[in-house]
Design brief:
- With 182 residues, the protein is mainly beta.
- The chain has helices spanning 145-148, 150-154; strands spanning 3-6, 13-16, 31-35, 38-43, 48-51, 56-57, 60-68, 73-77, 80-84, 93-96, 103-106, 118-124, 129-133, 136-141, 159-160, 162-165, 170-181.
- The strands form three sheets. Strands 1, 3, 4, 7, 12, 13, 14 and 17 form an eight-stranded antiparallel sheet that branches.
- The protein is globular, with a radius of gyration of 15 Å.
Length: 182
């Protein structure tokens, strides 16, 4: 049975995109403001992010409507990460495994228009992971490392927050965020 969570963007909290580097008031450089119903995130580096207060159980689907002024819409779940409009090469899509953190590149799949809202869907399921932008399939895999460990670990429920960030002086504006536990 699916459980759908419409996230109140005002409830999101500062965090680190790396579990080994917690964000403190002393090292937090990111700015995030809630204005006109939207969450606006600007980050000078790539360590800070905003995260949901709640944890969400695997498997799940993350739907976000967002825009960037230049580069780097980044989504995180557990050790996984998606980078759209990557600052090194906006055409390349980066997707990282949720257990190992290992990154995979997808040429000519990452670019989105600047200053224009797009709908991003990231589905992380037991047997597949996929990413859609405006309902266009950008990435599909049925052989990420986390799937190979299914017999040992994935039958046990685990949960984590969903995290979102900008990076390297980009500004990301989030209009909506929905997490569906599958």
């Amino acid at each position: 049975m699916e459980t759908v969570h419409e996230i109140d963007l005002k409830s999101m909290i500062p965090a680190s995109n790396r579990k080994d580097r917690p964000v403190t008031d002393n090292n937090r450089k990111q700015t995030a403001v809630f204005k006109d119903g939207e969450l606006i995130i600007k980050a000078p580096g790539d360590l800070e992010c905003m995260q949901t207060k709640e944890n969400y159980a695997f498997p799940l689907r993350i739907d976000i409507t967002a825009k960037t002024d230049s580069s780097n819409i980044r989504l995180y779940y557990r050790n996984g990460r998606v980078i759209i409009n990557w600052e090194i090469n906006k055409d390349d899509l980066k997707v990282h495994d949720i257990f190992t953190g290992r990154g995979y590149g997808y040429m000519d799949r990452g670019r989105i228009p600047e200053n224009e809202y797009v709908k991003i869907t990231w589905i992380i399921d037991k047997n597949e992971t996929l990413l859609l932008v405006n309902e266009e399939l950008r990435q599909y895999s049925d052989d990420f490392p986390y799937m190979e460990s299914r017999a040992v670990t994935l039958d046990k429920k685990f949960s984590d927050p969903v995290r979102i960030s900008a990076a390297w002086n980009s500004t990301v504006t989030i209009q909506s965020l929905t997490v569906t536990e599958l």
